[in-house]
Amino acid sequence: MMSDKTDSSRPLERYLGTTIRELRIQHGLTIAEVAERAGISRGMLSKIENAQTATSLETLEQIANALGVTLSRLFRNYNMPASGAQLVKSGQGMEVVRRGTKSGHTYHLLAYDQGPHKTFEPFLITLEDPGEEFATFEHPGIEFIYMLEGELEYLVGQETFMLTPGDALTFRGCIPHRPEKLHRLPIRFLSIIHYEMGLNDSDSENG
User: Fold this and answer.
1) Region 145-173 average pLDDT
2) 153 CB contacts (<8 Å, ≥6 apart)?
3) Domains along the chain?
4) Which residue of 61, 152, 165, 189 is surrounded by the most CB atoms within 10 Å?
């Protein structure tokens, strides 16, 4: 997921790098101080600030905590026209790492909440490794899955559901859930998590 090559087609990385640098300077902090608080190397933070590498949502959350701001503060003004609409072009959704995932399991975040509380998170999820073992996820809110491509069995609580293109599955995120068995690859599906009361960034552990 990391790339050391600056890519002008990645406006999100450039926006985040500039925002992090401005917040760091505003708080009178050095790269070394923020890197130490965030638990990452100074070189990595420098690359993030200069849009020379992509990074995970978890690392961004660590950086936000080190700067004393919420994660959503980093995205507040990104790609937000006067209409309030937010467009994420094909292939430009932020690639993120989620707990328990490995290679061949990709999440692209398709929208970025602008306020201090999350209301929903839409992901495009791609599964390509037939041998992957999945962690069990639990999180607040309600999750909606819509199958786009491939076939898989999806476990929710004690029930297993066979999902094929066009199928939709909705369940409470607090019920343990995970992909159980991959039947036809590649697999792509939309996963939309709705937080009923709006969720503060620090409370989120999505799966």
Assistant:
1) 95
2) 160, 161, 162, 163, 179, 180, 181, 183
3) 11-74 (1.10.260.40), 98-203 (2.60.120.10)
4) 189
